[in-house]
Specification:
Chain B has about 220 residues and is α/β, with parallel strands linked by helices. Chain B is about 25% helix and about 25% strand. In chain B, α1 (about 15-25) links the parallel β1 and β2. Chain B starts with a strand and ends with a helix. Chain C is α+β, with helices and mostly antiparallel strands and about 80 residues long. Chain C is built from two helices and three strands; from the N terminus they run βαβαβ. Chain C is elongated, with a radius of gyration of 16 Å. The chains are: A alpha+beta (about 750), B alpha/beta (about 220), C alpha+beta (about 80). Chains in contact: A-B, A-C, B-C, B-D, C-D. β2 of chain C pairs antiparallel with β2 of chain D, so a sheet runs across the interface. Bound molecules: adenosine-5'-diphosphate (ADP) and magnesium ion.
Chain lengths: ~750, ~220, ~80, ~80
């Protein structure tokens, strides 16, 4: 039984055929617009392309009007070589080196099939980085799960971690950081975000564009199968009988070995100058790659779709266009260079096929066995999708939430030394603050030999240039409870925390990426959260002078009408001139002074203490202080350059107490802390005021360092000393052995997921 | 002339550049070798690096063992060419039966990456002469299938003939029998090691520089030969 | 004692990188004409005593939920011995 | 077309952490009386045309050297179809 081909001629001759546009997620007016663009009804292949390229995921139709602010408010900087709009932004880090980095979500696939969902999340973001011409040098994985002890978390978390570990380790990319946050709001909607950073020389930057009449379109990498085409099957379904073709899998399966070959092969063809334009295949597969390459280039492309090598010969042309089979790339190569290109692919055992060529006429024409099944202006597919300015309303419950502040009257606070000690022990062992070694121990941090810092340090630091010691630092952060209380401030607090985490290593923050994880944009309350978060982030980036270079939006993270907390994950990249001068987080020797930089206030709204001890979320998040963050970063960079610091660690979740514990446990060096006069011990130990950092300074550098702070009017207070004994001694209150803290911190995750 | 030490890149090798760097740090001449070549060229010793050759699909090292270059390496190694297999390289050497036993799934079933203490048990091999017997070193370990197993009689023979080269101390990371981290053949020229000395060549990028000794050992051996 | 074998294979439409790697190796090593290799898992389970209906049912349930992932895998359960 | 199934199991004396983990899980999930679980591999190989003696021999050799590692594993080769 053969299915009739819905060619352009056929479509013209049968203008009123019923088309399943609604099943494909298109609205009636969107379908009408396609007809208007084409001057006829679309063929089923065209319908497939438009439906997926105009989906929320590919077109950013609900977010575009807001995301513009990242460009409009971008701070002036010479560092940005490639801005928003490409696969990933590119930042100049000096000496002719450039760095590209981006974070993306793979949330829903990771819920359906945790291992493969997370694995292909890593695979996808890595291909974005190679398609810019960069060698990927590290990955990070900001993750969020439901309650730590929930049954489903036990299913999802180990699978996600194994997937990231299995894929990333096999690719040979060090994992240098990430996040693991538990909150019941993510039950049913875990967040799996993946970040990749790559390095290149300025002259190696490549773009996704198809130029040069007669240049060839080469599809290379894995064969195309029926992965992830879910919805499009309806296009074929009516014409197949009930027990027709196997149901297409909605799950994509990753092959990290093929991706590793793809990386090496791609870098070699780019390095030899064989490629005019290049694009990875991710969401929407060939539809996306061909329409974007054509749209960004001369505008015309002719593709022979029947030349695409298939893993499954029963695939229809619509399905081939949509397939999200992993580990594929598309390159534009001039005819004179094709032989060499193919030779390199063979050397790496990477299949490669010429599937089309750049043409005149400004149309993307796709043929299937001699019949034209697509004939469209590529821009209308790739870039001129619908744009919505969706209604937004501040949720009715927001006021009550903010009014429910964690005052001492509402939430009982520990007062006695025993109570403070017990609170510390409870927080140290809480899933969000406990040691994450059970997870991070499954990730290779050493491969490539350039990892200078990795988890649990505040930032991952990667050496770029072995001769000069030039390197980059990266951190991702987001406290979604803060964003729930105030999405504008919450996004800025995420930015501030990532910025601070980069700064404590001595690196100078330079650029920002983000992954905006939200509920349904069709809910005006969620849309308000989204708009506020984007506005907050754009304003914050402007104030800190760090441009957003790219990112990703993930909507529909909700079950029925309950959305996740707004979770704008922010990644900050910094540059450090000599990685040998990076400042690690851990105390290193006895007799060093411990200083707290910044000001502590009674701020507990959205804090880990309120969450863990009282299961409470309400009030205001801590005050944003971007001026303070900037000042801190400048002082820390100077101090690192002058090698004044033994250690530096930011203060965030769990407050000063948790930060001190982390600094002490890192290298098993004890500390004595004195609670400053005039402040409540509980507030001093556990408040989550921002723009604060703890540092350890050797005696012979104290004078220089304190003068540096005083000179710039940075609040600084000496709060303790490192000890020769392995204990944490909080003056006149309590003492805990480091062994006891370590045991409490280390036991939690293995007990849950062991 | 400076001794030349080759590093074979298989499809899926990952720590090949690191092994080349370590050879360079030690003062020898690093030479990149390709799995598809059928000769070793003029090298004086060979390192089989870590990674996931052929994705480690099937079994770790099982497919790489049949590479064209292995057909050249196997007889050369039997003839005394110094060969160091690190992690995946150790797995390849066992699969090629150049070393006894096998490396299987870690007893806890997870990939493990951590800084590991080892005790050097033999310094009579080509790759450990610069260490003291009993010396403890700190190097990274990172593997999913690093559990060394062999029959009791083989283990006894390894112990009796002093061919256990290094043992895990301070906790066995993968369930290896008798805490074995590395072994050698009878002649002492072929060494398999699960941990990664090439990732411990300076304090900046590794937990120590303790691993450099493997590479200086081979350099000194080749220079004095 | 009863013995049960559960075989779990990736569904035919799902990519099987391991099988592909083996296919390539068999071909390179001179086994001519290999057209496909799929790699799956095999569980040999031993149980004390005979398999009554309820244990059989539980076994089938667990084969479907624990041993196989029905999103990407098919499975079969064979009772080899029941006594 | 011919079809061959190769089954590879760890030797009984070799520790099988995956099998052990499955054993524990089956027990926790209410399958009573499980005394042992071993996890192995199963290869389904398809070849064009019939299996002559030389291909059969090569297949057996490769099962022994490539598909299984005889130091730790046993294997069996079944020809399911030969045409
Ligand atoms: N939250 C965001 N902030 C900034 N830029 C964004 C954001 N979301 C998407 N973008 C940008 O929009 C472009 C298209 O995004 P995306 O479709 O994710 O890229 P790709 O096609 O490479 O997967 C990219 O340049 C991306 O960086
Ligand atoms: Mg892309």
């Amino acid at each position: 039984m053969t299915r009739p081909i819905d060619s352009v001629t056929h479509a013209a001759s049968d203008p009123d055929a019923d088309q399943p546009y609604a099943e494909l997620g298109l609205k009636t007016d969107e379908y009408a617009r396609i007809k208007e663009i084409l001057g006829r009804r679309p063929t089923s292949a065209e319908l497939a392309m438009y439906s997926v390229m105009w989906s929320e995921h590919c077109s950013y139709k609900s977010s575009k009007v807001h995301l513009r602010q990242f460009g409009d408010k971008a701070p002036k900087t010479d560092a940005l070589l490639v801005g928003i709009g490409e696969n990933a932004g590119v930042v100049d880090v000096g000496d002719g080196w450039a760095v590209t980095f981006k974070v993306e979500s793979h949330n829903h696939p990771s819920y359906v099939e945790p291992y493969q969902g997370a694995a292909t999340g890593i695979g996808g973001i890595v291909r974005d980085i190679i398609s810019m011409g960069a060698r990927p040098v590290a990955v990070m994985d900001p993750l969020r799960f439901g309650a730590a002890d929930a049954e489903d978390t036990r299913r999802v978390l180990p699978g996600v971690v194994a997937g990231i570990s299995g894929y990333g380790n096999c690719l040979g990319l060090p994992n240098i950081g990430g996040e693991i946050v538990f909150d019941p709001c993510y039950a049913g909607n875990p967040l799996v975000n993946a970040l990749c950073v790559g390095v290149m020389r300025h002259e190696d930057i490549h773009r996704a564009s198809a130029r040069g009449l007669g240049n060839l379109v080469i599809l290379y990498g894995a064969h195309t199968g029926g992965d992830g085409i879910g919805g499009v099957s309806v296009l074929a379904s009516e014409t197949f009988d009930a027990d027709g073709p196997a149901k297409r899998p909605s799950v994509q399966v990753g092959d990290p070995f093929m991706e590793k070959l793809l990386i090496e092969c791609t870098l070699e063809v780019l390095h030899e100058g064989l490629v005019e334009g290049i694009q990875d295949l991710g969401g929407a597969g060939i539809s996306c790659a061909t329409s974007e390459l054509a749209s960004n280039g001369d505008g015309g492309m002719h593709v022979w779709l029947d030349r695409v090598p298939l893993r499954d010969s029963t695939l229809s042309p619509e399905e081939i266009l949509m397939s999200e089979s992993q580990e594929r790339m598309c390159a534009i190569v001039s005819p004179a260079k094709v032989d060499r290109f193919m030779e390199i692919c063979r050397r790496w055992d990477v299949p490669a096929t010429v599937i089309g060529e750049v043409s005149t006429g400004g149309r993307l024409v796709i043929e299937w066995h001699g019949e034209t099944i697509v004939d469209v202006p590529p821009r209308t597919v790739a870039h001129d999708g619908p744009v919505y300015d969706r209604p937004m309303v501040r949720p009715a419950w927001q006021d009550a939430l903010v009014a429910d502040a964690p005052t001492p009257a509402r939430l009982a606070r520990p007062g006695t030394p025993e109570e403070l000690r017990a609170t510390l022990m409870q927080l140290v062992a809480s899933p969000n603050l406990a040691a994450k070694d059970w997870v991070t121990g499954q990730y290779d941090r050493y491969v490539l030999g350039n990892t200078v810092l990795a988890q649990p340090e505040d930032s991952g630091v990667i050496r770029i240039d072995e001769v000069t010691g030039l390197g980059v630092a990266l951190a991702t952060d987001c406290n979604a409870r803060f964003a729930k209380l105030d999405p504008y401030a919450g996004a800025q607090l995420a930015l501030a925390e990532a910025y601070r985490n980069v700064a404590v290593t001595g690196a100078v923050p330079l650029a920002v990426t983000n992954c905006l994880n939200f509920g349904s944009p069709e809910d005006p309350g969620v849309m308000w959260q989204f708009a506020e978060a984007v506005r907050g982030l754009a304003d914050g980036c402007l104030e800190l002078g760090v441009p957003v270079t790219g990112g990703n939006v993930s909507f529909y993270n909700q079950t029925a009408d309950v959305a996740i907390h707004p979770t704008p994950v922010v990644g900050v990249l910094g540059v450090i001139a000599d990685v040998a001068r990076r400042v690690p987080m851990g105390f290193a020797s006895a007799g060093d002074s411990i200083y707290l930089l910044g000001v502590t206030r009674d701020e507990f709204g959205g804090s880990e203490w309120a969450h863990e001890v009282h299961g409470h979320l309400g009030g205001q998040p801590p005050a944003v202080d971007l001026v303070g963050e900037k000042l801190l970063a400048e002082i820390l960079a100077t101090a690192a350059r002058e090698q004044l610091l033994i250690a530096a660690h930011d203060v965030s979740d769990g407050g000063v107490a948790i930060s001190v514990v982390e600094m002490a446990l890192r290298r098993n060096v004890g500390a004595q802390i004195a609670i400053p006069a005039g402040i409540d011990p509980f507030v001093f130990l556990f408040a989550e005021s921002t723009a604060r950092v703890l540092v350890a300074v050797a005696p012979d550098h104290e004078e220089r360092f304190t003068r540096l702070c005083a000179h710039r009017n940075l609040a600084i207070e000496r709060i303790g000393t490192t000890l020769a004994v392995s204990e944490l001694n909080v003056d006149a209150t309590f003492t805990v052995e480091l062994a006891e803290l370590r045991a409490a911190s280390a036991a939690t995750l293995p007990a849950l997921f062991g | 002339m400076t001794p030349r030490v080759g590093v074979i890149t298989f499809p899926g090798s990952l720590d090949d550049r690191d092994a080349l760097r370590a050879i360079d740090y030690a003062g020898a001449d690093p030479v990149a070798l390709w799995h598809g070549d059928d000769s070793l060229g003029a090298v004086d010793a060979v390192v089989l690096p870590g990674g996931f050759s052929y994705g480690d699909y099937l079994r770790c090292g099982a497919i790489a063992r049949f590479s064209p270059i292995m057909a050249a390496l196997i007889p050369a190694a039997k003839d005394g060419l110094p060969v160091l297999g690190i992690c995946n390289g150790f797995q390849v050497l066992c699969e090629a039966h150049l070393l006894p036993g096998a490396l299987t799934r870690n007893d806890h079933r997870h990939f493990v990456c951590r800084d590991q203490r080892l005790r050097i048990e033999s310094n009579t091999t080509a790759w450990t002469a610069d260490y003291q017997v009993g010396e403890e070193i700190l190097v990274p370990i990172k593997n999913g299938e690093g559990c060394y197993i062999a029959e009791e009689s083989v283990l006894d023979e390894l112990e009796r003939s002093g061919r256990v080269l290094a043992r895990y101390v301070g906790g066995n990371p993968n369930g290896s029998y008798r805490d074995i981290a590395g072994i050698t053949n009878e002649a002492g020229n072929i060494v398999g090691l699960m941990p990664h000395p090439e990732h411990a060549i300076d304090d900046l990028t590794g937990p120590s520089s303790d691993g450099l000794g493997f590479f200086t050992s081979i350099l000194h051996r080749l220079v004095s030969a | 004692m009863s013995r049960v074998v559960v075989e779990v294979m990736l569904k035919p439409e799902i990519l099987d990188p391991q099988g592909r790697a083996v296919e390539g190796a068999l071909d390179r090593l001179g086994l001519v004409g290999v057209t496909s290799v799929r790699q799956g898992k095999r569980f040999e389970i031993e149980l004390a005593g005979p398999l009554d209906a309820s244990r059989r049912e539980r076994l089938n349930e667990l084969a479907e939920t624990l041993l196989a992932n029905p999103v990407i895998e098919n499975f079969t359960v064979h009772v080899v011995e029941d006594a």
